[in-house]
Amino acid sequence: MHVMVLGAGLSGVTTAWYLQQAGFRVSVVDRQPEAARETSFANGGQISISHPEPWANPGAPGLILRWLGRDDAPLKFRPTRDPAQWLWGARFLIECLPARAHRNTRAIAALATWSGRQLRALRARLDLDYDQLESGILHLFYSAAEFADAPARARALAAFGIEAQVCSRDACLAIEPALAAQSAALAGGLYAPQDESGDACRFSRALAEHVAEQGAQMHWSSAIERLTVGDDGGVTGVEVRTPAGELRTLQADACVLCLGSYGPRLAAALGERLPIYPVKGYSITAPVLDPARAPSVSLTDESRRIVCSRLGDRLRIAGTAELNGFDTVVRPERIAGILEWAQSRFPGAIDSGRAEHWAGLRPATPGNVPLIGRSRTRGLWLNTGHGTLGWTLACGSAAALAELMCGRRPAVDFPFLDGG
Ligand SMILES: Cc1cc2nc3c(=O)[nH]c(=O)nc-3n(C[C@H](O)[C@H](O)[C@H](O)COP(=O)(O)OP(=O)(O)OC[C@H]3O[C@@H](n4cnc5c(N)ncnc54)[C@H](O)[C@@H]3O)c2cc1C
Is the distance from the beta carbon of residue 80 to the nearest atom of ligand 1 less than 6 Å? Predict the structure, then answer.
């Protein structure tokens, strides 16, 4: 059976790999000339199993109201005329209800835990080099009130089988000595030793090479214009536009949609209503000037909603969320907030003048639970909508999809789609 994977970001490349391992003949289609040129290019680098809580939680509406009008707001709503944006926003509010938020957190925690195991197994099998570090993630709290919730959060994670240790300020400094430069305001932390970090783009490109070596046909620079459908209404492939402007039809027995924020537009032509909307985020990647001053343990500043990962001799710092349509413009005021964070928390650590600035669109569902499984349209499968956790969930989601396409139920408690 020939399966065509649509999109070569984290979701698409991992899907292609796990489908090959399950015995499918695979091809990959992407409008870019190589893998991971869009959202998977410069994310926060965290394999963050210890952060399954979605943005849509009972505390979110209050925070969003408090941050309204602030240029440096971690979560910002910029209204557009797109009805899809308003519909997504309304659904986001529904997912903030306590029962919904708990259900979503549980599903994400289960998939994240499984995904961590899949990633380790993949690494044991392939010699992948992507600046990975297996030194955990340290969540930092810069207010006593926020830190007061840390024990409850550790207990909630433990209920999902995820280890997290509550740390005093001194314990945080022992885990990451670079924090000592500006530790006066640090209230404490939560350390998740099983978490990891690494460069998602390098990982995707290295895995894409293995996928190609194993015989997959890679259709680069091929922009999908539409999904093609047979007389029985089932998907038969795609129509792509080549760089020369020609239209070509590519056929397959089944397709997997991994097109990030752009998937819903193509799927809508088949009557599929996918609740995915872009949530924009920013990152900087800067050369490390002084390794002793730059953190090597991956950090999440819970007070500022900023994450930071050491990628070899570079530091990646990412954050912010804007509901702003499909705009990918890098706004200087958003980058300024991230740079200010780096300079104030880790003075002298990085060369800010040589930092690369980036913005990407997280393909987010309102509850941050990805869409994995069979769509309503015959021959169309989904592995998309991973929102804030596409790197964390990549291997597990793809391995699960391969199981589902083989007719097996993956060994993870998650609401997979079954075409209903
Ligand atoms: C600032 C930021 C920080 C983040 N930090 C983290 C983190 O620390 N940890 C974590 O787990 N997650 C993180 N994420 C989330 C993660 O990066 C995403 O969930 C993930 O990259 C999404 O991967 P994807 O493959 O679904 O989408 P993409 O990477 O966008 O891939 C979609 C692919 O489809 C292709 N495509 C789209 N339309 C077409 C078309 N018409 N024809 C052909 N090809 C098409 C694109 O070229 C692209 O290659 C972060 C995201 C952002 C923005």
Answer: no
How far does residue 308's CA lie from ligand 1's centre (Å)? 18
User: The whole model's pTM is what?
Assistant: 0.97
For the segment 332-354, the average pLDDT, to the nearest whole number, is 95
User: Which of ligand 1's atoms lies nearest the C-alpha of 279?
Assistant: 53
Q: Is the CB of 205 under 6 A from ligand 1?
A: no
CA distance 306 to 14: 26
Distance 363 CA to ligand 1 centre (A): 7
262 Cβ closer than 6 Å to some ligand 1 atom: yes
Section 328-357 average pLDDT: 95
The DSSP code for 261 is: G
- Quote the CATH superfamily of domain 2-40+202-275+370-418: FAD/NAD(P)-binding domain (3.50.50.60)
Answer yes or no: is the C-beta of 410 below 6 A from any ligand 1 atom. Answer: no
Q: Which of 30, 133, 224, 393 to mutate to test the pocket of ligand 1 (most atoms within 8 A of CB)?
A: 30
Q: Measured from the CB, is residue 37 less than 6 Å from ligand 1? A: yes
> pLDDT per residue over 275-306, tens digit each?
999 999 999 999 999 999 999 999 999 989 99
pLDDT in tens, 33-58: 999 999 999 999 999 999 999 999 99
Q: Where are the domains of the chain?
A: 2-40+202-275+370-418, 46-198+277-364
Residue whose CA is at the smallest distance from ligand 1 atom 3: 43
Q: Is 359 in the pocket of ligand 1 (CB under 6 A)?
A: no
What does the pLDDT look like over 191-210, one tens digit per residue? 999 999 999 999 999 999 99
What is the pLDDT at residue 169? 96
* CB 389 near ligand 1, within 6 Å: yes
To the nearest 10°, report the CA torsion of 407, 411, 417, 420. 60
Under the banding of pLDDT at 50, 70 and 90, the label for residue 78 is confident
Q: 183 is written with which tokens?
A: 């530790």
Give the pLDDT of residue 17: 98
The average confidence (pLDDT) of the chain is 96
CB burial string 381-399: b at 16+ within 10 A, e below? bbbbbbbbbbbbbbbbbbb
**Model confidence at 72: pLDDT above 80:** no
Nearest to 413 by CA among 382, 372, 362: 372
| Rounded CA separation 163/146 (Å) | 19
Q: Evaluate: CB of 276 within 6 angstroms of ligand 1.
A: no
Does the domain made of 46-198+277-364 have the CATH classification 3.30.9.10? yes
Instruction: Decide if 50 contacts 164 (C-beta within 8 A).
Output: yes
Kindly state if the Cβ of 116 falls inside 6 Å of ligand 1.
Answer: no
